Amino acid sequence: MATQREEDAAEYLKKHNIIELLDNLSGMLFFHRPEKPREFLIEQLEQLKISQQTGMKGPNLFNNANLDAVFGILDPTNQKHITFAQYKQALMTLGIKDINECPDGANEDRISHETFKTEAMQGIQRCSATYEQLRTCL
Fold it and tell me: Phi and psi of 48, rounded to 5°?
């Protein structure tokens, strides 16, 4: 059973989206791997603050070319499909947590390139939406 102090701490973290903020910052840190991580994190927080003030959209770490490259790594023989397990692992590696468990092709264990990109972009957009929510909490 949680103490009042633990409950208060959990409520504070939830109210201010602290876990989401740290998840986003960690993801950017691991993706970019800067030489000076502290300065990089400060810069990201400053950019978040600027986006809050200007209404600018949040960062998007991956684009279509990146997703094509990820799919190509998973499909080196160019079969034009990957397994459901590969699809799921790739999306988790991209930082997408709420994965569609029944995408087109899942029943046949053949996820097409197009389905992979669609699901990945939707997941990335949901992550960006989390970033947008964070702007309002600063």
Answer: -60, -45
The position carrying tokens 């810069």 is 43
- Could you give the number of structural domains in the chain? 1
Q: Which domain holds residue 118?
A: 1-138
The pLDDT tens digits for 29-54 are: 887 889 999 998 998 888 777 766 66
Question: Which residues, at least 6 apart from 56, have a Cβ–Cβ distance to it below 8 Å?
Answer: 50
pTM reported for the whole predicted model: 0.57
CA dist 115 and 65 (Å) reads: 15
Q: Are 60 and 129 in contact (CB under 8 A)?
A: no
User: How crowded is the C-beta side of 104, counted as CA atoms within 13 Å?
Assistant: 9
**Per-residue buried b or exposed e for 83-111, using 16+ beta carbons within 10 Å of the residue's own CB:** bbebbbebbeebbbeebbeebebbeeebb
Using CA atoms, how far residue 43 sits from 29, 34, 39, 50, 121, in Å, is 11, 11, 6, 10, 25
